[in-house]
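Sat 14:20. Reprocessing the chain from the morning session after the first attempt stalled halfway. Input below, unchanged.
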Amino acid sequence: MTENFNFADVLALMGLVQSVYLIVYILFRAGHIRNVIVPFMCFTILALSFTADFGVPRFKEWPHAELIRNFLWISLPAFSALLIGQVADFGRLPSRAYWMTLVLPVIAGIVGYGFLRSSDVLMTLGSISGCLCFLALWAGRRSFADLRDDKHTKNERYWLIVSFVVMNILIIFSTLLNVSGYIEGADFILIRDVLGIGMVYLASTSLLRIYPQSVKLVEKVKVEKILSKDDEEIVSRIKGLLELDKVYQEANFSRADLARELNVSEANVSRIVSSHFGKSLPQLINELRIRDSLQLLEQTDAGMQVIAEQVGFSSLPTFNRVFKDVMNISPSEYRQTKK
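Finished this time. Tokens:
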């Protein structure tokens, strides 16, 4: 029997389309997959949940369809908590404790779906697992301590986190009301889809703008010419000079210095670096310097001037400016978050 197209289907399709668009946008504009693995997983689960809400009424004869749909939705709070942890930590991958929260909905699924085959049990255990995920966030609330006080980027992060928490808590609460019989199934699905669409909307308007470390928008440089074997050899030498010799830690190291080391023209250096790395040499050097500075900020108590000189910046103001351009916060703020 064909299911009539209704308002719930419209919401599910809207959420699915927006989620897929967001996933594609993230993947095609991100510098590296490791930068976006957490938001990718979170919004993939949300996309699958919308797909299930649209498809399950059309496959009622399949006995496991409803249980799978509910399992997808109860998994969302765990992935949302993981994403919130990364947003709060300025784009760095969450700690192992946050990743462990993903086990909770799996346990709920094994008990509710694998053993008891009961949607009510699955949703109840899933709601409990979602609450435990956010309790884990609460236990690590020190990492959120300074977010509210900053009037710029960190303040926006704070309100994004609050919004995500509220929406997930509402999904959990509405799930419990549905299991208790206070909300009918059709109304519950509508509420759940609206809240899910709200999460996608928040991500598309706020997350991509204030979360540059996890969704770093990098304009891809079009490669006009495939690198020759000689060029690839030069690329290998460049990597050796940068990764092994760390020539960029010399103050005022420039394109001319690299060209002399390679015994090629400066124009060739610019072309090869741009084609292979997808960025200019100054950008590449600054990113490597900032990468080295992160370790020093986290693992030592060295002064900012000392760190700036060690990683290759000629002055402290330049170090502060470049660090803020790359990380969206100052070096001192970054060190404070790590403590």
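The radius of gyration is 24 Å.
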